Amino acid sequence: MAYGQTMLVLLAILLFSTMMLGYYNNLFRWYDMHNREFSRLQALKLAESVFQEIEFTYIADLVSFSELESAWSDSTRAVPLTDVNYTLNVESSWCDSLGTDTGSASNFLRFDLRISCYPGFGDTIWVGTATDPLQKLIADMGI
Amino acid sequence: MVTMFTSMITIQENNMILKGEMQIITELEYISNMIDDYYMDKIGYELPSTTEAFPVADQNEVWFNAKLDDGDNNIYLVKISTSGEVLPYGYPMNIVVTGLPDVGPIYLADNLVFAYFDVSGNEIDSATLASEPGRATIRSIQIEMVVYQGEYNTDTMRARTLVFTKYFPNLAI
C-alpha cells in the first residue's frame, strides 16, 4: 500500500473514532438527562402531594391556622422510592397576600418546599432551592 | 467497514432506547395527570350523603362516584383497574365511566397498586376496606404505576415506576 493510501486509511480510522467518541459522549449525556428528568417528575409529584397534604390537614380541621404554621415551620422528611431517596424540606412563614414575609402572625401562610435526591450518579438533583423554593400560599379561612 | 456498520446499527439501537425513555416519561406524566387532575379531582364534591364515594377499593382496582366536568352536575361511577397479565403486552389498565370504556387498555409493566389512607394518614387494611364503613374512612390514595416502552419482556424491557398521592379534602368537610 502506498504511503498516501496508508495515510488516508489512518485518517479515516481517526475520524471514525472521533465520531464514535463524540457519539457515546452525547449518548451518556442524554441518558443522564432522561434519568434526571424522571427524578424531577417524581419530585414534582411528591411536591404536589405535600402541598395537598398541608391543605387537607387544614380543611379537614386537623390543625388550626396557627398550628399549621408551627407544624410545618421546619419539617424534613425522607421518602425512599424506587432506589432513590428523596429528601423533602418544608418551611412555613407568615406573609401577606403577595407572599412577602410579615415576620408576625397574619392571615396568610407561605410554604417553601425544596426537594433533593441523588439518583446514584452525577450531582444531587434539586427541585426548588433555598433561594427559589416551590411555594404555596394558604389564606386563613376561619376554619 | 464491518466495524462501521456494526457501530451504525448500535447507534440506531441506542437511539430507539433513548426515544423509549422519552416516551416513558411523557406517558407517566400524561397518565398520572389524567387520573389526578381529571378523574379523581372532584371526589366528594357535592356528593349526596346517600351515595358511597368508594364502592370498591382494592389493591389493583378502585371504583368511585364523582363529578367529572365543570358545569356537569351528574355523578359518574368511575372504575380504574388493571387486570392480569396479557402476553405479550403487559397489564391492561382500563378506565370505565358509568359502564362505558373511557380510556384503555393502556398496557403497563405491572399492575396498578392502590394504597388507601384515613384522615390521620394511616394506611387502611384490606379487611377494613371490604366494608362500606371502612371505605368511608378513605381520605387519600397513593397510586403506584409502572410504565414500559418497547417490547414487553420482564427481563429486558426498560420500565419506570412513578408514585403519586391524591388527597380528597371534599370528603373531610
Instruction: Quote the beta fraction of chain A.
Output: 25-35%
Helix content of chain A: 40-55%
Q: Mean pLDDT of chain A, nearest integer?
A: 87
Instruction: State the end-to-end CA separation of chain A.
Output: 90 Å
SSE string of chain B, helices as H and strands as E: HEEEEEEHHEE
Structural class of chain A: alpha+beta
Q: In which range does the helix fraction of chain B lie?
A: 25-40%
Strand order of the largest sheet of chain B: 1-2-3-4-5
Low-confidence region ranges of chain A: none
Sum up the overall morphology of chain B in one term: elongated
Shape of chain A: rod-shaped
The whole-number mean of residue pLDDT values of chain B reads: 87
Structural Rg of chain B: 19 Å
Secondary structure: number of strands of chain B: 8
Instruction: Give the number of DSSP strands of chain A.
Output: 5
Question: In total, how many domains does the architecture of chain A comprise?
Answer: 1
Low-pLDDT stretches of chain B are none
Radius of gyration computed on alpha carbons of chain A: 25 Å
Q: Main beta sheet of chain B, described?
A: 5 strands, antiparallel
Distance between the termini of chain B: 72 Å
What's the quaternary structure here? heterodimer
Descriptive notes:
The complex is a heterodimer of chains A (143) and B (173). By secondary structure, chain A is of the alpha+beta class. Chain A is built from 2 helices and 5 strands; from the N terminus they run ααβββββ. In chain A, strands 1, 2, 3, 4 and 5 form a 5-stranded antiparallel β-sheet that branches. Chain A starts with a helix and ends with a strand. Chain B is built from 3 helices and 8 strands; from the N terminus they run αββββββααββ. The mean pLDDT of chain B is 87. Chain B has helices spanning 2-39, 126-129, 132-135, and strands spanning 56-57, 61-66, 76-82, 91-97, 100-108, 113-117, 140-149, 158-167. In chain B, 27% of the residues lie in helices and 32% in strands. Chain B has one domain (2-171). Chain A binds chain B through residues 16, 20, 23, 27, 30-31, 34, 37-38, 41-42, 45, 48-49, 52-53, 55-56, 59-62, 81-82, and chain B through 3-4, 7, 11, 14, 18, 21-22, 24-25, 28-29, 32, 36, 119-121, 139-140, 160-169, 172-173.
